[in-house]
Each structure stands twice: as C-alpha cells, then as structure tokens.
Amino acid sequence: MSTSCEQYETYTVKVDSRGAAANNSFVGYIDIPLRNVVKVELLSANIDSNLASTPCLYVYVDELVSKFNDKTSVQTSIRVAGATSNIGPNILASTSNISQLRTSLACIPTEQVNPRTVFTVNGYWNTEVEFIEPIRQIQYLTVSIFSSSGDLAGVAGVTYLTLRFTCAKRNTCLY
Question: Which whole-number Å values give the CA distances from 61 to 75, 96, 169, in the listed order?
C-alpha cells in the first residue's frame, strides 16, 4: 500500500555556458525532462560582468516566460501653450529586446569593481515565477543575458545559474 506524502516534486538544475559558443546566449539541455512545472526560482547566478557601462543584467530564459513578470516604462509629458500633458511611455528612450527584459527571471545589479557579478537568494531577494497553467514539459533552457540597454551583455567568462523547479505531481512514499 502506498501513501501520498507530497503534492509537488522539487528539482535543482545547474546551467552553465561551458563549451557554448557564447557566454551571454546559450542553450542548456536537461537530461531528464521536467514535467508539469508550476514554479521556478533563480537561486544563484555567477556572471563575468565587469561592465561599467551597465548598472544591471537581465537573466532571460525563453522557456520560462510568464505574464507575471513585467518592466515598467517611464512616463513623459509635453508642455504646449503653458499646459502640461502626460502622453504615456517615453518613445525616445526605446530599448531593444524590450519584451525579453519585461519577462526576464531577474534584474541583477552588476558589480562595478569585481570582475564577476554574484547573485544569491540569501544575499538579495527571492526571484520566483509561478505558472497558473503548468508547463507540460521542459527539455532545455535557452538563456540570454541582457544589459540594461536591451543588448546582449558582453560576458567574457562562463555564466553559471542555479534554478529550482517545482513540479505538480504526486509523489508516492516508499515507506
């Protein structure tokens, strides 16, 4: 007789760009596909980013896009005949790849002194995304690291990410 002891399974997946053609855009393959993913957390990121030109890096994973992640736009106003009017987002400050920045898993402040930016949940904040409709299957992760301008960041060394996946699937106790 088996007893149901958990509602979810949790997997920790380490992804890195070792051996990839680029350290800012790469694909990591998962040996055993994950099924019915309901939540993803970025536990840590280690990125070679001694970049004085960008104050932050956006970690984007194509397979983990959620409508619950967003990035705001700055509102602009114009002054005509002494009256000020708000006209909406500033189109002059447009950003390339804005949809990827909006749906990124995290926006991480860069280290301006150290050659690597290290993000950990304990050192900063939780970065988790929940999915109302479970992702049926994930076999690979397409990772891109963007600068604050929306361009792929200049990443010289290997990028390391650790993600925790929560899957909606009953476990069966073996005891």
Answer: 28, 17, 23
* Of 13, 11, 26, 35, residue with least CA distance to 155: 26
Domain enclosing residue 158, as ranges: 4-69+96-170
CA pair distance 74, 28, nearest whole angstrom: 34
Arithmetic mean of pLDDT over the chain? 78
Task: Give pLDDT tens digits for 75-97.
Answer: 666 666 666 665 655 554 555 56
Q: How many domains would you assign to the chain? A: 1
127 CB burial (10 A radius; 0-12, 13-18, 19+) = buried
Say if residues 169 and 20 touch (Cβ distance below 8 Å): no
Q: Are 111 and 59 in contact (CB under 8 A)?
A: no
Question: What are the two backbone dihedrals, phi and then psi, of residue 101, each rounded to the nearest 5 degrees?
Answer: -65, -40
The span from the CA of 150 to the CA of 132, in Å, is 28
